[in-house]
Each structure stands twice: as C-alpha cells, then as structure tokens.
Specification:
Layout: H1 2-6, E1 15-17, H2 20-34, E2 43-45, H3 52-58, E3 71-75, H4 93-103, H5 105-112, E4 117-122, E5 139-146, H6 150-166, H7 174-187, E6 201-203, E7 206-209, E8 215-218, E9 225-228, E10 241-244, H8 248-257, E11 261-263, H9 272-291, H10 300-308, H11 316-330, E12 348-350, H12 356-366, H13 371-377, H14 379-386, H15 391-404, H16 409-417, H17 447-450
Parallel strand pairs: 9-10
Antiparallel strand pairs: 1-2, 3-4, 4-5, 5-6, 7-8, 8-9, 11-12
Length: 461
Amino acid sequence: MKRLIEKGLMFGNLIRVDSTAWVGLYNRALKKITGRETALSEFHIDISGHSPEIGDELGDMDYLAPKGAERQFILLTTEQKTAPMLNADLSVLRDVMRQFITGNESQLFSLTARDAVLGQIDDQVWQLTGPADLPNIRRLTVSADTTGNHVAEADRLASMIEKFRTEADAWWDDVLIARMIEQARKSGDVLRNPIRLNRTDFEVPDFWTAGFGGVYVIRSSKEAAMIFADPAQAVEVKGFLSLTTGDRHKLAAWLARNALAEPIISARGADAGPILRQKIDFVLADAAVRLGIGAGDGGRAGLRRAAGRMGADLPPEVRGLAALQRYAEQGGDWPVIDSADPAYFYAIRATPGPARDLINRLLSELAPHDIRQLFITHKPLFYRLYQTWPDDKRAYVAEMLAREYAIDKQGTREALFGPEPGMREPGAPPAPARAGSGPWGSPRVSLSEAGLPRPAGPWGE
C-alpha cells in the first residue's frame, strides 16, 4: 500500500493536524467519545475526523465507528468537507457529512473557532440482525455539539428568551432574567449569532453497505432491488427483487427494464473509442501478469505484443470490446453484445439519476479488470483486491492511476461517467423510461420478425 500512498492514491486530500491548539481540541473530543487520547503531535484526518495514524497508534482502525455502534465524528474545521471518508461501511456517509457541513457551514465555522465539534450519524435502526433489516435504513440523522456543549447551552438560552417573550408575567420574573444573563455569559448572543444546526436529517433512498458480504439497496428505481455480493447472504425481502452479482442475465435485464444503464458507445458526450481502448488495455495487463507474459513497461505497444503471444488464452472480454471499438472508430456492422458476452458489463455505464454512482459501483464489481473504474467507484473493494495482486500488477496499476486519473480527477470522471448529477432533490423519482429502453433493449426481438429496417446506431434505439 506504500506505493499508493506515495502517489497520492490512498489517504489523499486528508486534513493535516499539526498545531498544538488543534491537537488539544482533538484530544478533548477523542477523550469524550472514546475515553482515550493520542500522543501524536501531528496526524491527518478525514471528513469525519478519523485519522489513520491514530488508528494505528490505538490498534483500532475503527475507533470512531466501533462494531455495532453509530459512526461518530470530530470536526476541527469546515475545510474537512473536501476530505474523503476512510473506512466507510455505508456508501452515503461521506455525502451526508459533506451536506451536513455545507448546510450548516456558518454555524460550524463559528463553533470550530473556539472548540471541536463532535457527534454521530444515526441510522435510526437499533440493530441489524440480518440483510432483511437493511431496508429499514431510510433516513440518517446527524446530532452534534461541541465538547463544551455550546449548542445545548445556546438552545437553553433560546428557550429562556422565548419564554421571556411569550409569557405575560415574564417581564417581572427576576429569577428568569438572572438565569438568562448567566446563561448568556456561557453561550453568547444567540440572537445576533445563532448557532442552531438546521440541516441534520437526510433521506437515504439508495446505498451500499459493507455488511453481510456487501449489499446494494436500491429503492429509487421503478423496480426496487437488493443485490448481494455474497450469495450465501441473499434473502428474499418483501417489496424488493433479490439478486446476486453472479446473476448476470437477471442483473442485465433489471438494469435494462429500469433504464439504469446505457451502452458507452451511444452514451451522450462519451468518446467511446478511447474509453474502450483503455478498457482493453486493463484486461490485457491483468492477463499478461496472470499468464507470466512480459508486457514491457505496460504501455499500449507492449500490451499488444503480449496479446499476440497469448493465443488461445486471450481474454474473451477483449474480442467483444475490440468489436465495439472498431464500430466506434470505423463504423460498419454493429456488434451484437448481450449479457452472455464477457464484455457486456465493461461496455455499459450508469445513466444519469439518483442511483448513478451506486450503479457504476455495481458495474465495477461485474467488470473487475477495469481497475480505473474500480478505483474511482469502489475503493473498499479496490484496496482489498490490491493486496492480493502480484507486485508487477500493483506497479502497473499505481503508475497508470497516477498518470491518467490523479492529475485530472474531475475530467476523468466526466469523460467516463458523464457530468455530475443535477440539483434534483434526493428521492425524487427519475424521468420515466420508454418501454423497451435501456442497453440493448429488454425483450430480444429480431429485426426481421419486427419488420423493421436495420438501425444505424449500435443496438438500435
């Protein structure tokens, strides 16, 4: 993992804590949450305040998210909103933390100027005894205060002020007035500088959890589904279609019926040729390492020479992807690709919508040799697999990601997956899909049977 860290591909964009004041504030919050403190004078924290250095020091990488408990957080600065989230067992946690910070930024800026803010993210589900309980997670609530309870003190003063304003005899209540003055010394002027945290509740229509072997819960689509990475954990849940990542045909049909994915070759704004060529490179690099065939420096020329020596061992994904690439760059007859083809899930991407990022994460599991998409959309799985790869493949992957992704993250994401989603409210239903739309259509009907002319584009409309 050291190679990834050195190239900024792991623990990147963390917030550096190196001042005595910040370390002291962090220790006060850490002591209150866990009963422990750090002896480190310098460390880095993520969006939730989790530090890999402190986790290593304490021998507990989940010290802010103990097993079976809610995710806790420590905020030293609102700049943490730009940091990643480490060890997230729920895919929406970082997005919720980011929205919480940006939605309460002025109040949090005021609070963190004098103290650390600590709190927790509550899924409002007391216990998850099995995968069937996951759909109960519908909303996440963020509760927060400083180590000095500034938010609670401000709420107490605000309550007294409301009583003073509304009760008829409060003007003559000397005890209430004295209490208000004393409370104001603790909390400041809450009328001119209110510190009430307003945006604390967040809808969670879709999410992925690391629990139970990895499960996707997708409710925003027309047909809700739960998708299990571990077939042994799969259960039937009322109101959900139950699938596993091994159900390739069923998954392809579900994606098509709900218009959740589209062919890269016909996706709006996608430069399909270079994208498909790069995917071929990833597949060939993996095969070259697995077969012990030298690929030079891992460049395209070396990979093509390695492919020529693979013979019958040439990965089947390459044939389908190469056919798509030729069509994208040269035209001619459009290739027939269905879910039985190993190239199928490499050749599609998620359509715009509330579940877009989650569907792209799912596709990275179904097309695991596309290590760039895997790294971008599913870092927990990427890091886990990275530790199992031979050193040659690790070196190639780290160099490729540093060269072609790290230098322009936003541009690469837009080129691969399209522009970021718009400002539609979370949970709003997606635009209705036309019957039979989606990648390669839903029912397979031959063109001659339908009496239709041959389409000009790939897989028809």
